[in-house]
Write a structure and sequence with these properties.
Elements: E1 2-5, H1 12-25, E2 29-34, H2 38-46, H3 54-77, E3 80-85, H4 88-95, H5 104-111, E4 121-126, H6 129-136, H7 143-146, H8 150-164, E5 168-170
Parallel strand pairs: 1-3, 1-4, 2-3, 4-5
Helix pairs in contact: 3-4, 4-8
Length: about 170
Amino acid sequence: LITLDGVDGSGKTTQAKLLIKELEENGFNVVYIKEPDGVFRDLLLHSEYYDFSLKEQLLLFIVNRIQDSKYIKEMIDNGIIVVSDRFTNSSIVYQLEELACVYEDLYENLIYDKDILVPNYDFIVDADIDIINVRNEYKTKDKIENSIDLIQIKTRFIKLSECNNIPLIST
């Protein structure tokens, strides 16, 4: 399981596609996933009827991740490499109000629950804020994107990378 996290417009999807292409060209079977998925994506990001608190968002992401982990484990057991566009690090940055290094117990006990896979390789994807803003200029924003401060989220991802020794990819 390889995960790429970062703010919208940082280049996660592009980096994931480049990685997948390289892996497939070298004979590996690869599956791309994006979190949240399915009904969770619609409920969390596009529902007009629900306005979830950060805690409620986090819990819904965890339920989604527990379900996804079952399928991801099956794929890995069958020799498939799974590349995920977002995973636990995005929940830490977007739903927790402070940094993961401050909430170490929560990080260990809630985010990495025994039913949730721990990635084999974690990466944080980053870009200059002006580039991120240009990339996001014509994108339709979802509910979470409309409620955040990109600079604050970008800073949290960088600090998460530093606190947990997660490699930072600059695009």
